[in-house]
Amino acid sequence: MVKGKLIMRTDRCKGCELCVAACPKKILKLDEVFVNKKGYHPISITNEDECIGCANCALMCPDGVINVYRVGE
Ligand code: SF4
Ligand code: SF4
Questions:
Q1: Ligand nearest to the CA of 45
Q2: What is the pLDDT of residues 3-47, one digit of tens each?
Q3: Residue ranges of the domains in the chain?
Q4: Does the predicted TM-score (pTM) go above 0.85?
């Protein structure tokens, strides 16, 4: 079964949540505690085991924060 592994450059994230809306598994959300150096709550993943590696999040992000690697193919 294909899974996704996300590498996120959270220092670039501006918290726009476009990726949150694009994720079919609803496993992305803004970190409620951490604030990045831009002053935003950045993106985080709640359950990476559920990621299917579709890369919708990476395609949607205007700031190149997310890279998706597909594993298990
Ligand atoms: S690769 Fe797809 S399933 Fe995984 S976090 Fe991104 S949008 Fe969600
Ligand atoms: S990762 Fe990209 S699309 Fe998602 S909230 Fe951050 S800037 Fe927006």
A1: 1
A2: 999 999 999 999 999 999 999 999 999 999 999 999 999 999 999
A3: 3-66
A4: yes
